[in-house]
Amino acid sequence: MILPTWLLLLSGTALADYYNPPISDGYGNWSAAYEKARHFVCQLTLTEKVNFTTGVGTGQTVGYSNSIIPRIGFRGLAGDDGPTGVRGADYTSALASGMNLAMTWDRQLIYEQNYINGAEHKAKGANSVAAPVVGPLGHAPAGGRNFEGFSPDPYLSGIAFGEAVRGTQDAGAIAEGKHYLLYEQEHFREIVEWNVWLAEEPNITDPYSSNVDDRTLHELYLWPWYDGVKNHMGAVMCSYNQANNTHACESDRLLNQLLKGELGFQGYVSSDDGSQFSGVASALGGMDVTGPGETSPNGISGLGESYWGPNLTLAVLNGSVPEWRLDDMVTRVMASYYYLGQDKDYPELNFASGNFDTYGYEYPEAELGWRKINLHLDVRDNHAETIRKVGSNSAVLLKNSKNTLPLKKPKQIAVIGEDAGPNKYGPNGCSDRACNEGTMAMGWGSGSTNFPYLVDPLSAIQQRALKDRTVVQYVLDNWAKDQIGDVSWQAEVCLTFVSAISGEGYLEVDNNFGDRNNLTAWKDGDAVVKQVAANCSETVVVIHAPGPILMEEWIDLPNVTAVIFAGLPGQESGNGLVDVLYGDVNPSGKLPWSVGRKREDYGTDVLYKANGPVPQLDFSEGLFIDYRYVDKNNIKPRFEFGFGLSYTTFDYHGLRINAVPAVPTASISPSQAMRTTNPSICPHTSLNPSDYTFPTRCTPTRGGDPKLWDVVYRVRTTVTNTGSVAGQEVAQLYLDLGNGTPPRQLRGFQKVMIQPGEHKEVEFELRRRDVSIWDVVKQQWVEVTKLGTDIKVFVGSSSRDVKLRGVIPATGKAPSMISSMVPSSSSRMSSVVPSSRFKVTPTPTH
Ligand code: BGC
């Protein structure tokens, strides 16, 4: 249809004016990449630019593979899932879940595993990795994809996300952080998936909307994205859901104003499969490429239709999308490409996701380009070592009575439960790992990969037990009551395995549509544990699950003497577990969420029944999810956030808190500020660098206002290993920032290895953001001490096991005035540490 010129002009002007145009020019060390990207874009015709932004569908790789530009010999970019390795490939590793990485609380291991992931993607020729995941954050414990991410705590997730981005990109691949934003459950995420594929009633007309206020957005769900952007994340995948009733992939607020404006994101935004719901609006809203390329209004990919492609050309020609926006889209993609140095010796794509044939079509849907598509390169190197280490270092020891663990050459062991053994169909026997057969080492969906092998617990235990001439008996059928009775009666120690699993919404397992229906162990797991415990005086329970499970039915039984939460550890599952069971590795994992006594303890849940044609998820609990809710409501969790035992014990003493003298922030030239900030949310673009004080509304660097990252306080303590074996402790720092914030928020952690009798100094750095809240009126972060608030400081080994307390006084208060702020267990108050500005007191452990 040809529209009259006046209408074209009117619509073009109106839309372009309405949307915010945060055109990035590259700053910091991105400027060279932007330079090259601009040069690249200048060579392209309109249709080439359009082709570039419009993916070609799920071809040889799962993700975005934009059109090759033959005229200038550019092959395009290929991306692949995902968080646990190169999806759909052969001779690649199957990594531990993101949740397991969070359970390690170990920055180095998080970095290392993501480095491996980047390296394997690169070796297979994929330019980008659809990972790491920080959405879902974990609004509800039953959320199907929580295990792909890290933790419902934004600080822990932020640190992990930042390290994961750094690791992936140091290896040379672009990290495509996902899913942005507020994608917190699987039910109702896609229209077709829900109405047709899953044929579930009632029908929906649009994906669900997560509704959240601006402060919660900043302090909780957006928080970790700052860390990703700060660490140069090259790409972001926008999500299926709506946010405050606007599709995430066309949300000017989420993409232009927040991600590209406030956070200063330099890379490109790609759609998820079927998450694009408009052509012009998504382009103006800030989406830069269509990941899978084709789509239809109802989010079905594979139809060969696109909101972009020819439609985008038309939109540019008729003025609905200004050409600068199209240029910006392409520039952003190429800037990431150049920033990662992918123009130099990047391997050719040499695998076809989900297809192990050596020859095939490059574009299978169109049956075009017959060629060698798989070189079957083995890219695993020695990565198994890191995966095993993540497994052992993430295991969380929840209970250990009667000195049951580590095992001491037991005479006879019983291994009980289906979760101890192999899947009878093989480790990759279920499509995208969507089943609960044998041991659970990975969740299902696009976050899965092919196992090159899977060391199940039983095999690893048998191998290790041989060394001690231990007799090993086992029963892998949860319903074989007689046999379970027999072997558990005879054994000295009974290793009992239970599991639960979840995954992505396009697949269903036992009526669980991605999200778990309940928080209990599957396959009658509670009954198995109870039966074993009735016979066996040392029952060790091992749990493989994608999040917390309820364990009230058996946790207090005296014969349940030890419990390990092992998560979803990937290919080295059994080996990592054996390391811990036998004490070769002293457990050091800590819970990245709380274990409640009942489902209601969490305060939040998945919306299972649509409350309208466009389901509405009102996050009315605001900042209070997981332990923040539990703490606020004085609920006694079964195991609190941050909890985890060791085979040794640790003592804390000497809390020292120091303010860090302000250092002038590197000056930002006015022209830089002008280029890189969004005129409509940042009117004073003639900013003088000397006026640039915190907080400001302009954010001319990656990761938001640069002053957010200044270290403003240092908190130090000394941790001593008071036991008889070496071990790692995760020292944790929590703050009470007042002003409606949760009673305790994690704001620091350090993992240290300490020899018996040795003590080590642990230091936490508090950045300005860590002591600030988001002021919705000013649209700024504000330090709470400047609001007259004293910050309460808690240091300990979990969110409830507080060993030391202190106070950071409100601005202007003399240190002497704050002693009355110290909690009144002050009979034990220590004297002020000489170099310290602030009073501290040790508190009894509880
Ligand atoms: C998932 C993404 C994934 C994509 C490609 C989508 O269904 O939400 O996480 O990257 O599929 O497999």
TrEMBL record:
Pathway: Glycan metabolism; cellulose degradation
Domain of life: Eukaryota
EC primary class: hydrolase
Keyword Transmembrane annotated: no
SMART domains, per the entry: Fn3_like
Bias (Low complexity) ranges: 818-836
Catalytic reaction equation(s): Hydrolysis of terminal, non-reducing beta-D-glucosyl residues with release of beta-D-glucose
Record domain Fibronectin type III-like: where: 729-799
Ranges for region Disordered: 818-846
GO BP, sorted A to Z: cellulose catabolic process
UniProt-listed Enzyme Commission number(s): 3.2.1.21
N-terminal signal peptide: 1-16
Keywords, in A-Z order: Carbohydrate metabolism, Cellulose degradation, Glycoprotein, Glycosidase, Hydrolase, Polysaccharide degradation, Signal
Presence of keyword Transmembrane: no
Similarity comment text for this entry: Belongs to the glycosyl hydrolase 3 family.
PANTHER family: BETA-GLUCOSIDASE, BETA-GLUCOSIDASE A-RELATED
Protein name listed in UniProt: beta-glucosidase
Organism: Aspergillus sclerotialis
